[in-house]
Amino acid sequence: QLSIKRSLRCRACEHNVSKPEYNPSSVKFKIQLFAYYHIPEIRIVTVEPLRAGRQCELIVKFTNPTQHQTSITFLKLDMQEEEASLDSDVAEVIQNLDHTLSLQERQPMSLTSLPLSTSQPSSLLSVSSRQPSLTIKSRMIDQEVNCDVEIPTSSFILPPRDDAAEYDDSGDTHNIQDDPKLVKWRKSNKAFVKLNVTPISDLSLNSEVVCGFIMQHIYTNTIASKVENKEPQKYDHKVKVFLHLGQ
């Protein structure tokens, strides 16, 4: 789960309780919330001719868009297990939402119920701290996977983004010791990674070949640290990745 800072309004007086760095309606604010700026970018570089039941080599480029170093780990994607986990997550979200709504109905909040001795900013913050956060239900992924991926046992590191390095031809690798079987080339915050994929043996002719895996990377939450004056917190964030390799 990625943490962001959003705008909140008081339900009683419609005043802003918490404001982000930018206006929520501004383009600059919306751009900063794009996953493109927080999740490593994945692009297909080359793929060998695909044959049913035969292993082929896939080269994928990973790019770190953040200002913090991250580590990439590959995990196996099990669609049946994901569906079961999704059902349990949806049930838990619905239960928590019903519990929150029932508490709101029992204890309605208003500015008039707050102590008069408190100042307006602190009272507004107390209201915002009691407001439940918005929870989005998990969505089912309707994607058929017909190609197996050999999951690498080792992980690799992506250095932080450096705009000046784009114009540097020295090819600095940051003295990172990579697995030569996994990482084929790297420069700055980019790395070319080799994956072995095998289309299923009963693949029909002219079918679109799709492979999938889970990418686990370290997400650094800097928004909460700026607000609370704390060190940036790091989380292991998992992303389901589906690659269309062609026919």
Brief synopsis:
The chain is α+β, with helices and mostly antiparallel strands and 247 residues long. The chain has helices at residues 27-32, 79-106, 120-130, 223-228; strands at 8-9, 16-18, 41-47, 56-63, 70-75, 147-150, 156-158, 183-187, 190-199, 209-221, 233-246.
Approximate shape: globular
The level-1 CATH class of the largest domain: Mainly Beta
The share of residues in helices is: 10-25%
CATH architecture of the largest domain: Sandwich
Count of beta strands: 11
Largest sheet: 5 strands, antiparallel
Order of helices and strands: EEHEEEHHEEEEEHE
User: How far do the termini sit from each other?
Assistant: 34 Å
Determine the structural class based on helices, strands and strand pairing. alpha+beta
Number of helices: 4
Oligomer: single chain
Overall radius of gyration: 23 Å
